[in-house]
Amino acid sequence: MKDGAIPKYKQLEKIILDSITKGELSAGDQISTEKELSTKYNISRITVRKALENLEKQGYLTRISGKGTFIADKVLLKDISNTLGFSENILLQGKKPGAKVIENKIIDSTPEIENALNLEKDEKVISVIRVRTANEEPISLEYSIFPMDYEYLLHEDLNDKSMYDILKKQSNIHFGNSRKTIKIVSSNFEESKYLKIPEGHSVLCLKSVVVDTNNNKIHISKQIILGDKFTLIV
């Protein structure tokens, strides 16, 4: 606990969340007791209790009377501060990632797409739409738009595969951090159909233009995420 500008309970919350996102703690794992955490980080048990209570309220922890505190099973975490593929995120949390291709084809670009990817007017682009799952349960609907430089994706089997692994292998891409926008929206008919939710259900819409470490634009990404199944960490 070195940063005096940040409350100690907040620092402990971050330590625990970092352990989850790094895969050091998985769903169902029991965490250290209040006494053990207090001794390890040289903070009061009141401070520890406050941190654990906050994480429990946010859905990250579950307390079982007489047994202890455990990592909650119901919430999947996604760290959006870096570009980490869906499959990697899910694997880190002990779940089985999956993907079902809805669309993988060439489409006409739009002025918005051309501006986002620095394309010429009326260039064709590749549209990939997939339902993403964790342990075979729909979690998000993923829309990706690529320039024709990535035409090889049309011939790849993208079902139950990490698209980022394919891009790294085929194009030797090293992904950089991308600016993202998050908005709460109501699901439309298509989104509701594939995510098995009522039309108009509140969902998270995460948009970004994904870049590599040299800031070259790779693709446009839009994810419609079930907020009650997937928690974003900023």
TrEMBL record:
Q: Which GO terms describe its biological process?
A: negative regulation of DNA-templated transcription
Keyword Electron transport applies: no
Instruction: Cite the PROSITE patterns for this sequence.
Output: HTH_GNTR
Q: GO MF terms on file?
A: DNA binding; DNA-binding transcription factor activity
Query: What are the residue boundaries of the HTH gntR-type domain, all occurrences included?
Result: 6-74
Looking up InterPro entries in the UniProt record yields:
Bact_HTH_transcr_reg, Chorismate_lyase_/UTRA_dom_sf, Tscrpt_reg_HTH_GntR, UTRA, WH-like_DNA-bd_sf, WH_DNA-bd_sf
Alphabetized, the UniProt keywords read: DNA-binding, Transcription, Transcription regulation
Taxonomic superkingdom: Bacteria
Annotated SMART domains: HTH_GNTR (SM00345), UTRA (SM00866)
Q: Pfam families per the record?
A: GntR, UTRA
Name assigned to this protein: GntR family transcriptional regulator
Specify the species.
Natronobacillus azotifigens
Q: Where is the organism placed in the taxonomic lineage, from the top?
A: Bacteria, Bacillati, Bacillota, Bacilli, Bacillales
